[in-house]
Amino acid sequence: MNKKLFAVIGISGTLMLGSVYSISANTSGYDLYKEALKKTHSAESATLNFNLKIEDNKKSILSSESIFKSDSVNQVNSISTRLANETEVSNMNMYKQDGNWFLMKDGLDTIYKMETSNNPHHSNSAELRDDVENLIDVMTKNLQQQITVADKQNGNHVIELDLTGKEIPLTANALSTLMIKHAAMIQDNNESESSGFHIKAKVPELGHDITVKQVKLTAQVNKENYIEQQTVKVVVTGKDKQDASHDLVIGIHLNASAYNQTTVTPVEIPADKVVEFNHGKK
């Protein structure tokens, strides 16, 4: 499967992995989720519906609805995304074909051509990966008994981790630090780019009294051993530099379907409308 597509599953399951890897190899939850990730990664094609929502004090500050289609055999991918913050809405379509990404945004006649190798966000992604690995190391120490696995009549399995309050004291500091750090990275990157192109997320910068109230993750694995659904909910409270209180809720929902059956049709790209997009520069 395309690495960008698989990353959606991987990132939304990061905390789940932290618990799974803490369980002995004889535990069904460990084997089930680990093997499902491997099987999912090996799929030649798939369709993912990915939704993200961030709320601050019960007010939505950023939401996205995306449909990812990946065909690794023919090396063709498509992504359609609707982004919204408190005041703006943006619709974009991205296509990967002929070895390049092409981006089309509603309201713009220009088609942007992007080479991902020149994307400055790659360094941030690598740093995020390293932080995730460190977070997993922290989380694996005390989460061995919290994961549950339920078998459904249709042959599917539901894996769940739901931690609240004192159940997550050792992970709270690591998790909150990670979230704040990379939220700030996203904010800085957005502010450095063209204001007419990107929608900005006004994520509050928490400075003290930071507490992780809840971490809830659910993954559904179908009888073919592919990840079919995955949800993540994280609740963090804290105060900013002005001592204002914030209750942040981050929610991710993923539906996966059409494994090894997804077809992505290449689109016609008019050469006279294509411009090189220098990502991260005005």
Explain what the structure shows.
This protein is of the alpha+beta class and 282 residues long. Helices cover 26% and strands 39% of the residues. The chain is built from five helices and twelve strands. The chain has helices at 3-12, 14-20, 28-41, 121-139, 169-192; strands at residues 45-56, 59-71, 76-84, 89-97, 100-105, 111-114, 148-151, 157-164, 206-221, 227-240, 245-257, 274-276. It has a twelve-stranded mixed β-sheet, with helices on one face. It is flat and about 60 Å long. Residues 17-27 and 190-195 have low confidence and may be disordered.
Low-pLDDT ranges: 17-27, 190-195
Number of domains: 1
Strand content is 35-45%
What integer value in Å does the Rg equal? 20 Å
Q: Give the helix level as a range of percent.
A: 25-40%
SS-based structural class? alpha+beta
Shape: flat
Q: Could you give the count of β-strands?
A: 12
Contiguous helical run count = 5
Mean pLDDT: 77
Quaternary structure: single chain
Question: Which sequence of SSEs, written as H and E, runs from N to C?
Answer: HHHEEEEEEHEEHEEEE
How far from one another are the termini?
33 Å
Reported for the largest beta sheet, the result is: 12 strands, mixed
